[in-house]
Amino acid sequence: MEYVIQELLFALVFVTAGVSAAALFRHREAHRLDIFLFALAILLPRYLHQVPAVLGFLGPSVFDVRALLALRLVSYFRALPRGTLALATTVYLGLVFGHIVVPDLDWPGRVFTFALFAWSAVVFASEGRRVAGVSRHRLLWAAAGTAFALAVEGDYLAFHLFQISPSMADDMALGDRYQWFYPLAYSCYFLAFATPKWLLDRWQQAEQSRYLAGTTERDVEERARRAPEDLNRAAARSVGHALTLVAIAEPGGALAVRASTRPELVGLEVPAGEGLLSQVWRTGDPDRGSIQDCGPTVAARLSPFGQRVLVAPVAASDRCWGVAVVVQSRGSLFPDDDLKLLAQFARYAAIALDHGALVAEAHARERRAADRRLREVEARMGLMLDSIKDYAMLIVDTRGRVAAWHVGARHVFGYAPDEMAEELVAPLFELEPPAFAALLDEARQLGQAGFEGACRRKDGGRFIGQTTIRPLVGEVDAEGFAVVTRDVTEQRQVEARLRRSQKMEAIGQLAGGVAHDFNNLLTTILGQSDRLEQELAPSDPHQPLAHAIRTAAERAAGFTQHLLTVSREQMVAPAVMNLRRVVEELVPMLRRSIGEAIAIDAVWDASMAPVLGERSRVEQVVLNLVVNARDATPPGGRVTLRVGRGWLDEVATRGEGPAAQYVWIEVRDTGVGMDEATRARIFEPFFTTKPVGQGTGLGLATVYGIVRQMGGFVAVTSEVGQGATFRVCLPEAQAEVEAAPPRSGAELFESLRGQETVLLAEDDEGVRDFVAQTLRRFGYRTIVAGDGQAALALADAHVEPIHLVVTDVIMPGGSGPDLARALAERRPGVPVLFISGYADAELARSATVPKASHLLQKPFTATDLLARVRQLLAARV
User: Fold this and answer.
1) Which residues pair with 324 in a beta bridge?
2) Quick one: pLDDT at residue 877?
3) Positive or negative CA dihedral for 92, 96, 101, 106?
4) Alpha-carbon distance values, 158 to 163, 165, 363 (Å)
5) What is the end-to-end Cα distance of the chain in Å, rounded?
6) Which run of H or of E encompasses 403?
7) 814 Rama sector, left if φ>0, alpha if ψ -120 to 50, beta otherwise
């Protein structure tokens, strides 16, 4: 019976050799040849000793080829020092021929065989413990077979060296050991190199179960999201050698590496249609080959890691998601097993991706259905699905720790779900945990709690968040709260700008209304005082009093001019100017104005585009900003002027102006700076931080009004103790316009008398009397009316020609432009002189805006009035 069992075990080596020969015949590959030769070599101890001629000629050294071939098998798993195989082959050949010379010298061959078998057994065992999958089982069986052979070789070595057997008393016992250990070795080699299919399937099923056990606990979407990483991890554990990677198809048709044991390869793209990877992806059939088969792009990146590749498609249905790749340093003894296991892992990953796609599609359908339902109940729900990312939605437990982190929370706060798991959320809202716990108690008691305040993002940024907390309803297993936060920073900024704009508009309207009444009064005072001063003799004691009245009226006129600038209701005569030249010519005067205690630097761009505006007003803007910087800067400080140009988008303009090409003046100081509360009010009229009596509060308000009237905006940057920067941005001029003709000094000395007929329409009695008296005193026939309707009636009743119309812009019973249009129909060609104290908005709304020569701003003197009347009458002729 023992003999039968031994013979059956010995027969397994023939099966191993036959299986290896068949595989070698089908696939002529180096590893199959090595296995076949090793299977033949392990037959030598059983059958070659039965041929005395061979034994007598070569001796036991011929058996040493088994150890040499075992070393070749080891080289597939562990890199050997260069030249090791060549050295071992040389030693083997030397032992064979040495035995021919000295037939009785057997112990060197035994030492050689024992050493190589010992090394092979250690490598098979250590590699079997290191790797996983089918290769693990095969290597451990190979290690066991080599260990059995090593035991027999050890006994032979001890017998030849010391003439004793370490474990047996005589040669007969050694023979019994030989009869059993070599058959056991053959059976182990059979299980390692010619494993039955049913056993292979069991080993592979065990690895597949291990793979599935690590993924089934996740939900479908999470399993799909992590499928490339799971596949890469399983391939590296059970199949991999030098490198593993998983490439998923991109929308453009290329494959992109999503996971790899080498992080530097993540993101590598495989061009469509190139190499073995694309072929497997297209056909859906697993394959293996050399690195060069992968195409130049992939081969260049993978060649440092190995020579052979296994490629399996990530496909489970009609869709192929990508490929899984294993790079082997020089191949494998069991590539078919490795490729089969890799293909199975890839199939499981593809199933996870398919399920994820189905769930995503189902979720998309659910979202679309929910969107339709939300639109139907929009008034009650108040939340649309397509704005879900604008809301940070999360679930917290009763301790205020994160229980669920919605995708919107990641979008708003920047944290991934795994980063916030079980974390306190109070720091996100700039709150202490007790304060947030109080809000949870309020929500529990009242059914809802809400607050608005600063929130913190992952990158350290801050935003204004509007948060609502509601207790969960219908939860049986857990108690918690739903927290919804929305970023309202932009909305609050827009509201703040709107309030500021409305406030400035209201202040401007008030200032304009006050200026209108003041200008009417000042026109009368200035005009009558001017007349009184002209009529009094130079030696008259009342002459200084008349001059004092006129000086006070002029100063009051300058004050109302500031108010009109703040209200942005002044008509200007725009001209194209070079902003750099204007500021450059202004710098010497600025240095004299602010003194030597503060330095002024000026920086210019190489080229400067023009802007459209009034030079005197631009100079006023620069002067006001520099004076403001001087007042905020202690002695020894510095004020820097810079003129530049560039494109500003909506973000850069902060909503103050459209995206366009701008030219800017920047005034930067090293002064005390401003806090946020001060920055919010600096452009308000009459707001000042100076002591009472040292400032009017109209400087920056005037700057704001002028700049807004020119179509620009002012950006302010300042921190306490860090100085301030004012940047005035003006739109670049697109084309030159005809500038208003400058007033020549000679006009003041021309003859101001005339005999023409002038129709005067003015609702203010003082201004009306002053203008009428002045015109009549200088020979003009004057028809006086208190409003537009009366002026039309007088014009219709007057049969003689009317040479000029002088009218206020805003009057009861019809405006000045309305009167001008009506008279143009009755008396075509009659020029019109508009007099205005606060009327530019009305003129802008009219059909045609008058030229600068047809507009006289209040207050004015008799000389101003007569010069303008004479100019229009002369132009008519």
Assistant:
1) 246, 312
2) 55
3) positive
4) 7, 6, 74
5) 145
6) strand 402-405
7) left
